[in-house]
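Researcher: Quick one. two chains, 824 residues in total.
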Amino acid sequence: MLGATVRLLRLRWQLWWNTVRHLPWTRKLAYLVAAIGMAGFAAFTGALSWGGLWLLRQPEVAAALTEMGVSIQIDSLLDQLPALFFTMAFTLGLLANLGTLMQTLYLSGDMEFLLTAPLPPRAVFFSKLLQAVFPTYALLALLTLPALIGLGVARQLNFLFFALAPIFLALMVVSGAGLSSLLVMGIVRLISPRRAVEVIAFVGGISAFLCSQSGQFAGEIGESVLTPDQIATFLDRALPLTGVWNPLAWPGYGLVRLGSGQWLPGAAFTAGMLLIGGAAFALTLSAAERLYFSGWSRVQVGTRSRRRRKSGSTGERNGTRSAIPWAGLLPAPIRAVVRKDLRLFRRDLRNLSQLVFPIILAVIWTFTFFRGEDLPEQAGPALRLGGFGIGLFIGYTFAIRFGMGSFSLEGRQWWIIKTSPVRGWHLLLAKYLLTAVPPIIFGLLYLGVAAFFQTTSLGVFLYQALTMALILAAVSGQMLAMGIWGARFNWTNPQEVQGGGMGCLASLAGFATLALTGLIFGGTPFLARLLSFPAWTVYLAGIGIGALVCLLAGALPLAIAARRLPRLGEGD
Amino acid sequence: MTPLLQLERLHKSYGTKHAVRELSLSLPGGEIFGLLGPNGAGKTTTFKMIVGLLEPSSGRVLVNGYDIQAQPLEAKRTLGFVPDTPLLYEKLSAMEFLLFVSDLYNVERQKASRRARELLKIFDLEENADDLIDSFSHGMKQKTALAAALIHDPRLLILDEPTVGLDPKSARLIKDILRQQTRRGVSVLVSTHILEIAERMCDRIGIISQGELIAVGTVTELRGAQTGSSLEDIFLELTGGAEYAEIAAVLE
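Model:
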């Protein structure tokens, strides 16, 4: 079995290497820079860990901490930290691999091919498992190994600690993944693998984003994230997890004891870990294998919702009565494209996750910005501009997403529209509506709510609403134009539709438009005060000039890009 | 009478590689024309140029008298196309997809709903009308694509390998539907690798090799011109595949 596993892993390596070899040199360079950055990060973490732990072990620091009311037994803490790391590694191996395992076991498309080859099935499963856990292991190793090495240096542990740390980490991740494979099969029993991957990516993405923002958010609502009390509370809650009763903590104990020359307890903990971990892994692997072969994990049971029609199918009902009252005025092909795109967008959770991020950011910024107590009395205009700015940010982010993905969203199904008798301007109008309407609605909605809470005057609100709608309409036109220029119909993940150089160019063009129109619309009230003309004439002139600039900024790129429409997708 | 499809010296080249060479063909109404050729012969490229997915390097495609490049809307209105791989919007249900396509062709809503229901029933997809296409098998997707191609009552059907991946019952159903369509004056241009289907289903057959249409006629006409007795023999003779048959014989 080992030989077959090695052969399969060698195949994976070859596939990866061939992919890397054929990348454009710019991408290779980017990967190299990223690799150097990661190495630097690892070195920094190692140094920080070593320095921090060395500092904590100084008697003066310990005394200072005791004075502050934090009683930490530093050597005991250092003993328990590896155990905590390994417990976390197992948990991450269990949860973080759900998506990758789903992909490798069900969506990679080569499972049947490999299982019909004269290879032991267990080798196929094992190699698939290793393939799936590798990214998680690499990430965990990057985050935890430098910290463990720093700890080992600070505690002057022997070479066994350093040599075994990466091996133990790998064992924990693989054990977690073994259990994860069973979970994956249970999930697939309930929903289709493709849908499961979408849900996992959505939940994972939102969780990761919330975690990444929580530090900033916590810093805003509290005085400081790391008060001595908080550290003590964290340790009080986390360290009991590393009790001897917890087999997940054994590799940590074994490692520290072997590293400090306590051979007997070290060997006992390590043997215990290998015994329980190995047995659990073998059990889960064979169970997963059996469930796969028996077909249990490939047949979904009665949870699939079948929408039964009452007086006509959903498609028919939605088709005859549109949600938009004035939609009937639009030609049928425009309505059809709008309705279809909204459905496709809504039904793929990966699309929605991209819209949730700006909303979460907006909530955090709103909380930060409008927490009145730090703001002086005269902050009124700044507050009003803050509401406008955040509303514009939401609309701008939506415009980028909808505009850049407008045509790419068609994907490999582009032939359906291309072979149909749809007029170019019908298609363009449909895509423009999809790009511009959601950003304007969400931007104005936010502005309205902000204006309500800030008691903004009606005049200011109307001026801001009009200028925001004009700016977002212009930016939407630009983004749609970029979406036509950079259309890629061969994506597999919606996040790919706005990548590459065109995405960068779109951001630059968008920022330039925001700056220029912001200058015109923002400068108008100041000019109204400075000039001797009646204020309404200055406002009117400002809005007129701004609207003209918006029209040019939005329509011109769109008109140029529209010429590409008849030949769009012919190179793919 | 204007032919429903006319190809005039259709040519497509990619740099120095000629995918289709000076291909000329005319299809009157009510005929099933089979385009046969080995892999990479230029069948799919020809089809893509006919339906407007690809711009020809030179030559013209006239659909119902309209140039597909100069008057695309008029030409496409009479066309129905099924590609070799049924790539459909996976997150739409079959009914939603059919209604979407009918809107693209400006089919009146009531008529579209009725026709969609009929087509789904004919193709044995009635029970799955409200299921998302991503839960469909290859054959079901193929049948959905064919239903979509028929929803606007086209006068010319272009079908690239329509029977691939279908069970015998569905393949038979498609053959019957195509035959019934031709009785109503619809023309069908179909490519297939299954020579038996071509022999039984097509009124005329064209054999394409290395981008060139090397033979056109009824099976009887082709038989008369060549020494082979079956369509397979004629095909292998014309496309240079006969040598493979000899190799296969040696291997036996």
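The beta strands of chain B are 5-14, 17-27, 32-36, 58-63, 66-67, 79-82, 156-160, 187-191, 204-209, 212-217.
Researcher: Thanks, that's what I needed.
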